[in-house]
Amino acid sequence: MPYADRDFLPISALQHLIFCERQCALIHLERQWAENRFTAEGGVLHRKAHAGRSEKRPAGCTARSVPLRCAELGLYGVADVVQTRPGAPPMPVEYKRGGPKTHDADRVQLCAQALCLEEMFGVPVPAGEIFYGKTRRRVHVEFDDALRATTRATVARLRNLILSGRTPVAEPGPKCRNCSLKEICLPKLAERSRSVNHYVRRSITESLRDDTPGRPEEGPQP
After folding, report:
1. Distance CA 23, CA 213 (A)
2. pTM metric for this prediction
3. How is domain 5-168 classified at the architecture level of CATH?
4. Which of 73, 52, 50, 54 is nearest to 62 (CA)?
5. What pLDDT, on the 0 to 100 scale, is given for residue 220?
6. Is 90:83 a contact under the CB 8 Å cutoff?
7. Does residue 210 have a pLDDT over 80?
8. CB contact set of 113 (below 8 Å; sequence gap of 6+)
């Protein structure tokens, strides 16, 4: 059954979720946000992609800042660019400031855009591209069954997180280094808190073990 408009979730949250569940909750549950150099550079790249003119030529059409929605999954967002050629399906193009990543965040976000386009236009969207600002190159992405399944599963995870209303505890790691929410998230403090909690639990367990009455000694046999 299609989702009501009030239950729609932003496509961008899928990328946040895959990168870090806590970051996703801070942004989309607690409405926290902070800029740093990386988010600012990404914003500039997106604005350039959106500000360019849409073009319609015999060889094809390039539409920019295209609104997206999918009632089946309850998603909405904006595609940086959607390109079409005569006799070919539409192709979403997403712009990213960095380079290709080891995780699926960018590919899932792009695939979600394709699922929106399929519902909106009633045509299959088999592939898309991601332009990376660091390499100045596009990466071709096929929307195969595995990626589509991963995308749908990620949408379900996102909806469960939002419905829970709970922000996961911090899991400090290398990803925290460039995160703009690092000072809000306080991963080092969370790590210290977990260490203290572990120490307290261990101390209580050991104390209870020491205080447990032993088996009474047997008296002399008659």
Report:
1. 48
2. 0.79
3. Alpha-Beta Complex (3.90)
4. 54
5. 38
6. yes
7. no
8. 11, 68, 77, 79, 92, 94, 128
